[in-house]
Structures are given as C-alpha cells and as structure tokens.
Amino acid sequence: MQVKIGEKIKELRKVTGRKQEDLATALGVTPQAISRWEANGGYPDMEMIPSIANYFHISIDELFGYNNDRNRIIQEYNDKAQWLINNNDDMTECIALMRRGLEEFPDRVDFKTKLAFALHKQGWKNKGKEPNIFWEEAAKLYEKLLPHDQSCIIPLLSVYSCLGKYEKAEQKASEQPDLELCRQVLLGNLGSIGSINDEKRAEQYRGDAVLELLHAFQKSLDEAIVCNNELNNSREGLELLLLTRQLFDKIVGTECHGFHSDLCFIDMRCVKIANNIGDHKVAMDCFDSAFEQYIKFEQWKIKQFKRWEERNNKSINDENNDEHFTSSLLKSVNPSGHKVIVCEPSFLVKTATSFPEKEKKLITEDPKYACIFEQ
C-alpha cells in the first residue's frame, strides 16, 4: 500500500476544522512544512509521527491508514471463505484461502475456525481413507481453539466421532462444566441474589441466561426427538415441538434478532414428523411458517451487514446499538451478544423432500418459494 500520510493529515485537519497554522503551532513547525506534507512534497520526521497521531486523537496505524486497510482485507477473507463454505462441497479452495489468510494474520481465531470447519467438511470427501488427514488436522485445530471459544466443543466432538475416537469424545464432553456452571447462568444467578448493584445489568444477565438455556433446550429436544424412533414418528413428538415453538415465540417476542433461525429449525422438524405420520396439511402449514422465519432471518442478516458497514465507515460504537427484544423477559438483553444458527435455503429444500410427490410439486412450483430453489 502506498503511504500518503500528507493526504491523511489534510483529511484529518479538515474533518476536525483545524487550520495548517494550528497544527504547525502544536507541532513546533512552520505552516509551510504542513503545506508541503499535504501536497506530498515531503514527509514528517518519524519522531514527529506520535505527536501528529496524538493531536488528532487517533492511533499511529490509523494515521498511516493501516487499520481500515487491514479490516477490509480481513473482511474480504472472511466473506469469501463463508461463501465457499456455503456454496461448495469441495473445500480445497477454502482451505488454501484460509491458510493464506493465516500466513498474513497468524492470530486470527475466526480464520482458524473457518479452516477447521473446511477441513472437517473436506474430511467427508475422504471418508474411508486411513489416515483421514483432514479430520486429523481439524481435530488439532479445534483442540487449540477450545480454550478461546467454547463453542468449538461441538464440532470437536463430531470430528472425534468421525475418527472413531468415541471414548475421547465422551471424555472431552464429560470435562465440560455442568449446565448450572455456564457463564450465562452464573451471571444470571448473581443478578437474582442481589450481588449486582446495577438492576438493569442484573436484569440483562438474567435475560441472557434465559435466552441461552432456551436455545440449548431447543437443540437438545430436537436431537432427543430425532434419535427416538417412537417420537420421530408420532403425534406426541410433533406436539412436543409445537409446544416448544410456542414457548420460544412467547419468550423471544416479535423481534427475534436472528433467533428466527431457531424457529425455522423447529418448524422444519415439525414438517418432517407431520409427514411421517401422514398429516400433510400440518406439514404444509409448518413449511410455510419455516419459510417465513427464513425470510425474516435473511432480512435480519442484511440489516446486520449494513450495521457492520456503518460501524466501519462512520465509526459507530456498538454501545449505541438500539436493537432490543420486544418481550418483557428479554427487554434488557443485547441481541448482538448472542450467537445464532445460520439458516440456509438448502435446509428448506431438503425439508421439502420429505413431502409426497403431490405436495412437493405444489411447493416447488409455488412462486412464493422460488427464492430457496434458485440458490
């Protein structure tokens, strides 16, 4: 990158309403020197750089324009890697991309996480080969990431299972904290027993705990039902999921802030069970609901991307985030502090295959659902 520090100084001076004489006086140089810098006729002495950065209340990296350039490159790596993950079965290009990214930015946890995911996915293309070098490397990466990101425990256990390391998976799972000892629950308990003086903050912690436990409950119930042949093929299983959906809907409220994906996944499971028991009308209603939640999730995702652009282009602080849940229970919870499950159109397409041919044809030919089949 060509460094044009003079242009940056000029830009900062005009934005802050300073004259060349003001900056010259502060730095102990002549206004003519400032003019030369701004015309790219020369550069400030290196020992003067910290003083210039301090004058404009920015970092030296920002003065040289490195921050924006660095953030842009990192975002480009992440965006391209995510696109490759979402749109390709072969992860060769994604793996190479993330390796290049880590050569340039060795400490990026998000790059390591995407590399591990790509390796995990690529391992399925080499299933049966011994050793499976992709799964082996993914396991090592997830093991290193686990202390920094507890969510890595889930893919790590999956990779262990893929490698046939069942005892290791069970041991690693048993080493994790009890549900009552997770961060959100502990902070929520502090708020409940009066250990936090700030009531609003205590209310936020209690809401965080409820939301995380609700999310975990939904996932656990789904897995319990899908692995139980009796529930997966009975109205009892369907009713359990529908009750869970009502509870989730009631607690979260009308503004779900990305948790539309949880509702979408519940609806999709309901579709499959309803089709298993031959209640295709309920299945169609649930599919329509799943589609609506998917659309809301996509709208939320676009809004989040716009907010990211605003934060990077206008230095908007996350503290000014005006997003909030509409339910009384979660009104103090900051939605941006919670991870959400990504909902992809391919999930809905796969769900549609559970219908008999007649209903499947109605779905695939309905213009309303065209967007998911065009991906």
UniProtKB/TrEMBL annotation:
Keywords: DNA-binding. It comes from the Bacteria. SUPFAM superfamilies: lambda repressor-like DNA-binding domains, TPR-like. Residues 9-63 form the HTH cro/C1-type domain. This is HTH cro/C1-type domain-containing protein. It comes from Ruminococcus bicirculans (ex Wegman et al. 2014).
